[in-house]
Amino acid sequence: MWKNYLKISFRNLQKRKLYTGINLIGLTVAIVSFLAICLYIQHEWSYDKMYGDYERIYKFNQEFVSEGESQLVSSTPSSLIPTLIEEISEVETGTLVFDLSIFSSVLIDGGEGNQEEQSFAYADENFFNVFDFDLLSGNSSQVLSEPNLLVLTNETAERYFGDAATAVGKIMKVEGNDFTVSGVMEDFPSNSHMEFDFLASFKSHRHGKNPEWSPSNYYTYVKLKSGTDVGAFQAKVEEIKEKYLGKELAEYGYRTFFHLQPVSEIHLGDQSLGSIKPGTDIRYLYIFGIVALLLIAIGIINYVNLATAEATERNKEVGLRKAMGAGRGQLFGQFVSESMLLTFAATLLSIVCLYLILPKFSTISGVLLSTDSLMNFGGLGLMIGLIVIVGLLAGMYPALILSGMEPIKALANKTKMGGGAWVRKSLVVFQFFVSIGLLIATFIVKNQLDYMQNVSLGYDREQVVALPYHYKMRNAVETMKAEMLKSGAAYSIALAGDMPVHIKAGYRIFPGGDNQREFMITGYSTDEDIVKTLNLAILAGTDLNANDFSREEANDNEDLVPIILNESAIREMGWSPEEAIGKTVNFGYSDARIKAVVGDFYFNSLHENIGPLGIFKDQGNANVLLVKIPAGNPAATLATLEEVWKKFVPERPFNYKFIDQEYAQLYRSEERVGVIFTLFSGIAILIACMGLFGLVSYVALRRTREISIRKVLGATQKDVISVLASDFFKLLSVASVLAVGFGLWFSDTWLQSFANRVSFSPWPYVLAILLVLFLAGLTISYRSWKVFRLNPSKTLKSD
Fold it and tell me: Which residue among 11, 180, 325, 432 sits deepest, i.e. has the most Cβ atoms within 10 Å of its Cβ?
């Protein structure tokens, strides 16, 4: 029976080539989009679930609380994990990772000269007991057990030694110190929150030999024993914290907490925490999932619309089948089999298309995706389910309408399709509501991105180059700075602890001096040229100069540290810029005198409000040169700077970063969202317009006699278009109103994550509606033109 259904279905689909082609392309585009988004979501959800017993692995985050304010950071002290292993029985094992790339690059010499590496970390001997990455060479319990041991990833081993198998036992110089390659591991998978090229034994680091409870610079992971009550374990951690830190923190008015975070939730967790590798806002996955379902829905709607529109063309077929004894169930099966066959063909075609476009989509999404996950049991199940569900949803309603026709009326071509017309109109409204809504969302995202790129940050980011340098260069950096200025390749140069796009160091203002408020503040370690280099606006007071004490010098001389505060900092203390000058504050472990107040500037992502900031001379903690270069030919300027660099530190590569490009990098995920929305809103419009083309074609053919009579009576092409377009534009108007409501909701929801956002503008809504109406108008006009060209004498004669 089913064999017969399929044979007849194939003939019917082949007979109606236009509608079959529209449905096949529409379903194929929808399914390709659905599968691509599914692969992306699956990849993001799979982060850190490749480890054995990953449900028992947790990461510690540390919270600092004082005076009602709190700060959550992703790192902890080096003493935490060895203490927990020793004193809490529920701990099976734990490990500590120190990401050195946060602070500086590393010089590696594998025998062919120095190379500067960014992905370098220290890890303790338990690393491979917590994270069961495959070791291609070496013993997991020994590769990090002694000082000066080094584990390479497979790609790194091949890069340095040509063959991973020969790397073990080789000596590599790390910042001039000999390290022995003790093992080679598989490359970190793309769905791991870790991403390093080198793992050095933590015992090589000073805190690996003598763990301390300060500073909190280390990522700490714990693997709990099976069946452990996490709440009870957390309570024991609190007891350990009080035992070792409670008294000391109480003296300074602090409280601290260590919070557990499942390792599988790091990537999609709190993005303000920061991690070894940038994470993803989980809301984007929900949004993309909804978009995937909407695209499938549009493809299904195309089929339903065209099939119900065609129903009157199949009246006689249905009547004849029923007269020959076919039951309603048989007819239902026949029509559903057509949709199943078409969906099966579209799915096969989708897999081929997906294979071809996936490299490009991987580039757009920033995630390395593969069709391999579609070829396993779960992937095959997804596609079979997709064929069944889409086939049933697309074919069920048309099948119910067609199989329910009365034989006599069907043979006489007197069947009324009023209900079908109402459904078709509703579905057309839904299609264009989705299309316009996605386009509005695209324009809203683009508006916010444009705002972030063009907003005044309060400092000059154009023509400023960052030259990161290693702490071993600090003795030579002042001389090198003077030489660069002398060369004419720089207008101004400042030493700084961070690039201004993201200043990380956290401090606290305590009650003392002229201030009795306590609050968190960001500290910026610089020299006296920072204001001039970044062109910061001084609102009151005078700039730092060469005679001012650095923080270290002021402490040695028991003097006050000259400090520059921003507007937000003095606002916390209740002063005006003029009132603040000369006042003293307790800045962490130092007493400081306010020398100047600068206007607020953005020193973090626009997701956050501008907070209090203190700028002080502290060259000993600086690790980047900020160089203001002349406009014009940056290549020649950079070449001059490189010459000076090589003169002082020939062993270290010259690497530079433009501040404006680093600022743009803060919003990579938002840019990807914008590109993906643009892509899929375009696809939604394409599918909707294809469906509209099919419906207009059907209506035009049904009204060919009427149009021919109108033409004979003197109707123009414009009149014909108006006749065909009027009903459709009414439906598009309804869809536009609904889409505006969606756009307002999306704007409010998505922009909530930005403390600084673009103001409301009607243009995203107007442009989206006009663009879709224009494309729909073109579609209707083209099909109307084709009908208008028909010779009335032939159409009326044939009728």
Answer: 432
